[in-house]
Amino acid sequence: MANLVLASNSKAMPKLDGSIKNKVWAFIEKLSADHKSPGLHIEPIKGAVDKRVRTGRVDLNFRAILFKVDDKFGDDPTFIYMGTWPHDEANKLAERSRLQINPINGVLEGIIGELDGTDDRKKRVVVPDHSGELDRALKTAPQGYLAGLGFTLEDLTDRLGIDPAAASEALTAVDEDAVMLIAERAVGWQGGALLDLATGTSIDDIRIKYGLSDAPVDENLDEDEQILKALEQPASKMQFAFIEDNDELRRAIESDDFAAWRVFLHPEQRTYAEKNYNGAFRLSGGAGTGKTVVAIHRARNLAHANPDARIVLTTYNKTLAQSLKSDLQLLDPTLRIAEKPGEPGVYVGGIDALGYAVLRQATNLAETAQSVLGYASPDSINSRTRSSVWRNVVAEAATGLDPKMATPSFLENEYVAVILANRVTTLEQYVKVARPGRGVRLSRPQRIAVWKLVEAYRRQARMDGTLSYAEVLALAAESLRLRTDAGADHLVDHVIVDEAQDLHATHWALLRDLVAEGSNDLFISEDSHQRIYGQPVVLGRLGIKIVGRSRRLTLNYRTTAQNLHFAVSILSGAEYKDLEQDDESTAGYRSARRGPAPELVECDSAADELDEVASQVKSWIAKGVEPSSIAVLTRSEAVRDQFVRALGERDVAARALDDKPVAGDCVQVLTMHRSKGMEFSRVILAGVDDAHVPSSASLKSVPDDEQAEALLRERSLLYVAASRARDELIVTWSGKRSELLGSSTQ
Ligand SMILES: Nc1ncnc2c1ncn2[C@@H]1O[C@H](COP(=O)(O)OP(=O)(O)OP(=O)(O)O)[C@@H](O)[C@H]1O
User: Is the ipTM of this complex over 0.95?
Assistant: First the structure.
């Protein structure tokens, strides 16, 4: 059986329709079973630049381009499948396609004729320019952008291994945009490295990021052996993937771009998905940098490494958990999905569902409830406390508490972050407990006043026999703690959590108590710039020690550089702290894709804005954009519903997206909160005027001391919303534009 390697083809290959994809699959299946089968018509190309290139017959009109690499120790060669093209084009391209081992760093590079912008390269020898001629020429030319950052041609070619022609072109590029254009055409890893250079990343750091080798080729090996060895380099895996499993191969071929996230990880993503960590690890990174992708791969890798391992993959809410689960199953349909946390396999669930699932298994509920709530638990854990209870408690009580503190949101935060987190059950405990991280200081009389309200809240819930989500989480955590204190094993072996920036104290207590401190215990994926709920927490105070095990992803796979630039501009000027209380930065954020600049549209009136949004959506649909890949995002549910109605009245099929997925191919209208973790091709942020964004109602509901934090959340919310667009982004408003848009006029 021949070995098969797939090359990433998203840039070069034409879109194939379903029937051709089936034929490609049949061709590849045959090839891996018997590469000598005459029906494949595997043929070398006369006069080809690379003697390894072959074309094979997919059908009468289409041919695949392959490289055949022989293994002198085994009978079977390795075929590298580069893609499928119409017959004549395939032959023409194949003639000028080649594989090369980068002479500086040993990365394998596959070049498909002119489609990689390398049509004239066959005459060019890829060796570094030691003569310094180009460098001298560049010194006399006007200074380019990369040279302005201090890079020389020698840095790019001799130290990094960028193709000399691309490197000299990149050095003359006048701005970041021009570097991007060159990066877009560059082969494999080189495109990414050029973008890194443009953001000022040092050569040494880039070498580390891509795992580049100092000893590129082993002269004792013949050329084919060198190629097979080069395939193992982390940066080669950005372009080439060995796929052993037939089903996996079929899935990869059937998806348009080989579902790149499943097959071609960035070397950094691969490291974080595969590496063993001796304790909790934190992966941060901008929106769209692939944190969720890493989390999913990591869950799969841990499950493969030990099929008996009990793994929990969790995230902020139910809908995000559903999409984690379906992506995990896409990545590996054979993976064992656990029904309950604690069973072998991967349990996937929103964090609240995880809390319930743990508590349902608890055999120490009475003891647990006594410890957390100060009274025996209700008969059932399934009845949830209504959100109106805090409101009623506040309305009925005359506590003398500052009205800004006598609000449901302040009390709920205090209850979760201080009272539940510390298992406070009496006033004596509450007046003494430390409240680090809470914006508002409370005097002793104020604490007494707050406690009265807490007691009233608990009394009501006890009478009703209900629990809040946060109480369930706190109970679940405590039941686990009591269990392990009594000598039992921890419930699970590995926890992976996505969207962790939004978790509060009782969420963290649950995660901490689920798994023993140790190897690969907690993998935390988060972006503090996207924190849109609750107050920031500090992991160290919650028993989670990261101690140097934290890394950041910066390459955005989702959106264009233009959209990214706009989204990041929303954050500018504001200061953010990460989960370890260090400054969070957007330095180095970049995207490899380009597209139109976001449009900011000021409308004359609310009615004009409804018309504007409808006509924009219609024009996209008229151009063939699928309606379900278009989203209109609003700050509130009321404005969302207004846009759903308005679109319907203007003959655009649109639905409000809330808890349930939208059925049918229609435009999705959702709140900015609901858009968390999602992505769409075209996005309109509607109603971004200064009354709605930031939401004056939300700001009014928090005490003065927490205003700055609340405003930061509003800013983050707009950043989350703006970073959902893959291709095009439009922002509309009527009246005064939101101050969070800054002075951007894109
Ligand atoms: N290596 C990759 N190759 C191709 N596409 C990728 C890769 N990694 C991530 N992506 C794609 O980029 C997009 C963003 O990825 P993902 O959702 O994992 O990012 P994220 O960092 O979790 O984003 P957010 O913080 O906004 O939720 C997805 O469409 C994903 O499929």
Answer: yes
